[in-house]
Every structure is written in structure tokens, then in C-alpha cells.
Design goal:
2 copies of one chain form a homodimer. Chain A is α+β, with helices and mostly antiparallel strands. Chain A folds into 2 domains: 7-268, L-amino peptidase D-ALA esterase/amidase, CATH 3.60.70; 276-396, ArgJ beta chain, C-terminal domain (Ubiquitin-like (UB roll)), CATH 3.10.20.340. Helix content of chain A is 35%, strand content 28%. Chain A has helices at 47-58, 76-94, 115-128, 134-140, 198-210, 246-268, 287-298, 301-309, 314-322, 351-361, 388-396; strands at 7-12, 24-40, 60-70, 101-108, 149-157, 160-169, 178-179, 187-192, 216-217, 227-232, 276-284, 334-337, 340-344, 347-348, 365-371, 377-384. In chain A, strands 1, 2, 3, 4, 5, 6, 7, 8 and 10 form a 9-stranded mixed sheet that branches. In chain A, strands 9-16-11-15-12-13-14 form a 7-stranded mixed sheet, sandwiched between helices. In chain A, helix 1 (47-58) packs across helix 2 (76-94). The longest helix of chain A is centred in the middle third of the chain and has 23 residues, at 246-268. The first copy, chain A, is globular, with a radius of gyration of 22 Å. The two termini of chain A are 36 Å apart. The interface between A and B is large, with 66 and 66 residues.
């Protein structure tokens, strides 16, 4: 498939990771691009995010430097100096203004970056830049992930042909709650060769992230470093496009597809996860209440361990919904496993439904719907299960 | 030690539990007693709690029937009929009015009680009643607990000598949030031979529960069946006592001791737990914000698995605090492991502090303090760690 025009990539071993794996990635556009990002809403923000918040105002970007193995979070003023130094190094190596360089980090919290290694790494990464090395870059941003997460789409309207490439990482500390103003960590870098006004790019990104990355949870922990950054460099030859134009609508659809694909890869790759469960709460009084319930249920330890055990333990689901702090009538609640109505008006429908739900709960991927029959409110969460490997990984691994 | 006067107990095997373990307990006072209870705030309330809410109004009680192995929750109108039938059976067997019989259940959610077995069991339990069989009763209320949880205190002012006995169960689905109006489940039954006005008894119970059971969490899941019930039968010979009298103050202290002891037994016996961690947030703007942070940190999977691993992974603690939805300044945050200041103004103090914190984090029991330096707000949570056995138990066990 055609890659977005005008982008170069590299991913190298700088030595930040003790494992000796790739840990420094560089993404560069040959011309300044429109840039928009959504960032974590965590009160504790990693140093690179402070730099990104500054970049957000102008809405421009030409290079992104990303390190894994160290989150540069909980590092105070020194951390911020280090993030700015990374920007300065990239700016020098590429001969572009520092204001066009974005920076991101993921890994251990509370340790200072080994800046001498990072500096050498940046020089090396800048020398290796090539349009074909996007897989290298996608590998260098990983931490506990099983492998790189890449999604590519192409489209076109009339004479304009364009591509959209997304690379992401994240398997733990995943319950993103990102906003335009706003830790493992979710990182996602999107590149397209279309261009558009900054305001359009922001609106599109926010809307797609809210329906994809912001509705997944591996462990209910929101990171200090989450960010999704999109660059749009215009090398596809379009000038700009307006809201609701055919190009806008098509691009929005492609962006949604890429974000959805990458978000689901994260849930599937959730630390220790064996299953992906699509949880839906509907019939709530409003979206906020539906969201509160879906997050409480999807992050319940008892629900997640029942998923791991392949047990349609609806009592745990209902009990978790009941503690979400949202008023509803338990005797009106219906609960489905895929298409099977298991609980009707708050009680088990019958033993046939239970047998069918048992088969569904053993699958790698299924859906659960809770219908409160109280209003139009609806929310979705893609959640993973909680198994032995989660505990193994996280009692040893130092985020 | 002297037991509270005028109480009889029994605990038997009725056959509700497939394991063949004791599953039906009866507690009876020889005279009607003042009674007060705090109940779960979960919107999904088990049938017995509906009956208890009715009893709450009169504030009287003479008998308590408790079954384990089946929560009688998610059982709709049939469940409520079954709870009332249990009351009626006890009333008949003991020749006391049904209005003086309280009922509690714990175990699987969503299954109907085997009422024929329960009925036979009640007859048998009534025949076995004896003042010395309190350990039997304390055993019959257990589910995933490793063993019975009993606490006994005695006191006296002037000629009045009294005792307070508490028995409790609970190892999972433990983050009680109980109120006077208000799921495994926490169950606690307290008996004293003092007596006092219903309003005094309610106030004392609420105040003690808020400082003990309501500040523990094993897994962050609040049950449909939680309840703490106190009976005060006056057999110690006192007439009544007023707020702030010496007897009031002494009894409040003893009640607090018993509730604290039982609450800590639950955390120590938390499913798969190997550690008890006392988390304290101080310096928040107010208590509500402190409580929000302490619960978010104490229930974070990443924090709990780090506790299991014996790793002073403060980055996870700080990241969890940051996502609690409470504004604070990360650069003002101090964090202690026991007496060791590990993080000062948001960054690691030094490697010496880190070495000392590592030793503390390996202990079975320690404290963590987060000081936000923003106000007088303070909250505590006693939390357990999350280990392999938690997953093992809960992927197999059906609550």
C-alpha cells in the first residue's frame, strides 16, 4: 500500500532500555506540517507533554522524537530541561526550528533520562532516516507490547490521492482520557499527506479519539504520558478542505478506522490479556451516567477475572453497575452476552440462556450489553480480561 | 473473657454450600434488643437488605439468621419472598414476632435459595442454640475467608460491667460503602449486653463503621449484601446512657477497637493477599478530595501488583493520584514509605531513600503517605496487594 508522501522514519537502540532493544524513534516530514495532538488529562503530566502543550498553540510540526524505556515523568524541572534538550538536539541535527519539533516518552516513571545516550541516539536516528523505515520507528516506541501496532489506509476524491499511516504503542496503564488540552502509556503517531486548517485537524482528531482510544481500558490506570499526534503535510497536493466536504467525510472515516484498529490492537495486546470484551451500557438516563457505569463494570477486578475464567458471572457485572454511583432500577435491567438475553428484568432468564452464555464467555472476543431501560444514554468500553500474566508482568515490571 | 450476657448462637450445615461446610448461622438474644445496622449503598441490593431496611425503622431485634453460599441477590420478587420466609421460619421456631428477626445472606449472586434445605436448617439451628457456640456461628457465615473473624472486648464504669462481641466475614468484593440507609460481601454482627437509645446506637455504629469498615478495600468492588448489625440487649444491667457520658466514651472506644480489628482481619484475609498497606492522603484541600485520591490509588491495579512485588514503585502511586479527578500540584507532593521520605516535591529524594523504601516495601505490613500540601483534607484506606492467588480464586469462584 502507498505510504503518505513526504515522511521519513527511523528507530534505533540508544541504550535507554537495559534489554538492548530499540528505544528511540524519529518521524520527520520533509516540509512543515499541520499538527494536532490530544494529551492525557492526568494531573501528573510527564515533561514531554508540557513541551507538546506549547506546540499545540501554533498547530505546526515537522519532526517527532520519541523514546521508550523511560517516561521522563516525576522528574521535575530537570525532566523538563531534558525534554527541551531532546528538542534542541533534533532541531540541530535536522536544521529545522525547535518550535517544529514534538517530543514524547514512555517507560519507567521517576528516573532521569541518560542524556548522553539520548544525544548520541538522536544523531544516529537522524542519519538513518528513510521513508521505508516506519516499522523500525513503530518498534522503537514499544515497552511491554508484544509487537508493533501499525495501521495504513489510502483514499482519494477526484484527482487527490492520499494515505494515512498510524503507529501506536500501549499494553498497560491503559485507560486513556485524552483531551486537546490535556501514562505504560498510549502513544500514537499519525501521518497523512493531506493538509487542512489546524482547527479542522484538531476537531477531526478529538472526535475520532473520543470514539476509539478514549473508550478502551486494559487496567483502568490513566498514564502521565498518553498522547496521540497527527501530522498533515499536504504532499498529496490538496490545498485544504472544508467540513462536510466529500474529502472531509472520507478522511474522517479513514481516521476513525485507523484509530479504531490501533485501539483494539492495544486491548488485544493488554498486559496478560487473553480476551477482548466490548461492553455496552444503554438505556441510561444520559451519556455521562452510561459512561460511569461502563467504566466501573469494565474496570472491576471481579468482572475482569470472571472474563479470564470464561465464566458468564453476570452477578458480578450487575453488582459493579450497582456501585457506579448512578441511580437505576435493578428490576428493569436486561443483560446480553452477544445476542443472548441472559438476565431479564434483573433476574436470570433461564438455564438455556445460561448454557448459551457459557459458550459465548469462552470465546476470545464477545460483547456484553447492559440495558437499563431508563433513557437514551449509551456508552461503550473495549476491555480486556485480567489473568495470571498481568500479575506476573506488573509485580516485576517497573513502569 | 466474659461474653455479652443473654445471647445464644449456633452454626450448622444446611446444604446450601456444595462443599458441605457450615452455611447457616443463628444469633439470638433472650430478650428484644435495640438494633441498628448499616447497609450497602450499592444500587443493586440483595433481598435480605430490603427486609433489614424495614427493621431499621423500629430499631429493635432479637434474632439474626444468616446464610452463606448464596447471596439471595439478583433474585427479584422470589428472592424477597424467600428472605421473608426465612424470617417467618425463625419467628416460628423461636416463638418471637417476625418483626424482631433480621436476615442476611452472602455467596453466589443470581441463584435462588434452596428453601427446603434452608427450612430444615433453621429448625436444626434453633435446636442447637447455646451461649458458647459463637465460634460455630462465626464459621457458618464465611465464604472465601481463610477462617473465622472474631473480636471480643469488655469494659465497665462503676457497677456496670459489659462485653462486646463481634464476628465478621469478608475477603472479596470488599470496598464497603455502608450507610444507615443504605456486597463477597462484608458481614459483621455485633452483640453487647449494654443498652441505649436507638438513636445513640445508630450514631455510634455509623461513626465507628465510617472509620473502620468503610476505609478498607480488597478489590474495589462494593457488594450487594454488605451489612453491619449491632444488637444491644441491656443484660449488663444499665438503663441507658447519654452522649459524652463516661460509659458512652468508653463504649465508643471499645466499639471502634472491635470494628478496627475485624476490618483489618478482612484486609489481611483479602483474596490472594499477602500484605496490608495503610494508605494515607493528607494535605488535600478537603476530606472528599483526599478520599477520592486514596481510593483511586488504593484500588489501582498497577499499585496493588507493585505492592505484591514488594517494589516501592512510587511512579505508579503518583500516576494513580493524578488520574483521581482532583486538582493538585505534582511539584508539591511528598511521598513516604513508613517514616522514609522517598519523593520530595514530586521527585525522588535520593538513592539512599530508595534503598530504605525497598526494604519497607518487602514487609507484610507498612504505610504509605502522600502529602499534597494544599489544605487540611485527610483520608485513609487499608488496602491489600494483588497477587496470583487473587486471579486464581476469582477466575474459578463464582460470587
Amino acid at each position: 500500500m502507498r505510504l503518505p508522501k513526504g515522511y521519513c522514519y527511523s528507530g534505533i537502540v540508544s541504550g535507554i532500555k537495559a534489554s538492548g532493544k530499540k528505544d528511540l524513534a524519529l518521524i520527520v516530514s520533509e516540509v512543515p506540517a499541520r499538527a494536532a495532538a490530544v494529551l492525557t488529562t492526568n494531573r501528573v503530566k510527564a515533561a514531554p507533554l508540557v513541551v507538546c502543550q506549547e506546540r499545540q498553540k501554533r498547530g505546526l510540526g515537522q519532526a517527532v522524537i520519541i523514546n521508550s524505556g523511560n517516561a521522563n515523568a516525576g522528574t521535575g524541572p530537570q525532566g523538563l530541561r531534558d525534554a527541551r534538550e531532546m528538542v534542541r538536539q533534533v532541531s540541530q541535527a535536522l536544521h529545522i526550528p525547535p518550535s517544529l519539533v514534538w517530543v514524547a516518552s514512555t517507560g519507567k516513571i521517576g528516573e532521569f533520562l541518560p542524556m548522553n545516550l539520548v544525544k548520541k541516539g538522536i544523531t544516529q536516528a537522524a542519519q538513518r532516516l528513510s521513508p521505508s523505515r516506519y516499522k523500525e520507528a513503530a518498534t522503537a516506541i514499544l515497552t511491554t507490547d508484544r509487537g508493533p501496532k501499525i495501521s495504513l489506509r489510502q483514499g482519494g476524491v477526484g484527482k487527490i490521492k492520499y494515505s494515512l499511516l498510524g503507529m501506536a504503542k500501549g499494553a498497560g496503564m491503559i485507560m486513556p482520557q485524552m483531551t486537546l488540552t490535556g501514562h505504560a502509556t498510549l502513544l500514537c503517531f499519525l501521518q497523512t499527506d493531506l493538509t487542512m486548517a489546524s482547527s479542522t485537524l484538531k476537531r477531526l482528531l478529538k472526535s475520532c479519539v473520543d470514539r476509539t482510544f478514549n473508550v478502551i481500558s486494559v487496567d483502568g490506570d490513566t498514564s502521565t504520558n498518553d498522547m496521540v499526534l497527527i501530522l498533515a503535510n499536504g504532499r498529496a497536493g490538496n490545498i485544504s478542505f472544508k467540513k462536510n466536504s466529500p474529502l472531509y467525510r472520507q478522511f474522517e472515516k479513514k481516521l476513525l478506522e485507523v484509530c479504531h484498529e490501533l485501539a483494539l490492537m492495544m486491548v488485544r495486546d493488554g498486559e496478560g490479556a487473553t480476551k477482548v470484551v466490548r461492553l455496552e451500557v444503554k438505556g441510561a438516563r444520559n451519556h455521562t451516567e452510561a459512561q460511569k457505569i461502563v467504566r466501573t463494570v469494565g474496570n472491576s477486578l471481579l468482572v475482569k477475572t470472571a472474563f479470564f475464567g470464561g465464566d458468564p458471572n453476570w452477578g458480578r457485572l450487575v453488582a459493579a453497575a450497582g456501585r457506579a454511583g448512578v441511580p437505576f432500577h435493578p428490576h428493569k435491567l436486561d443483560l446480553f452476552y452477544d445476542q443472548v438475553l441472559l438476565v431479564q428484568k434483573g433476574v436470570l432468564k433461564n438455564s438455556m440462556a445460561e448454557r448459551r452464555a457459557k459458550k459465548i464467555a469462552k470465546k476470545n472476543s464477545f460483547g456484553v450489553i447492559l440495558d437499563l431501560h431508563a433513557g437514551p444514554g449509551r456508552a461503550i468500553l473495549y476491555s480486556s480480561d485480567l489473568g495470571h500474566n498481568y500479575v506476573q508482568l506488573n509485580s516485576k515490571y517497573r513502569t
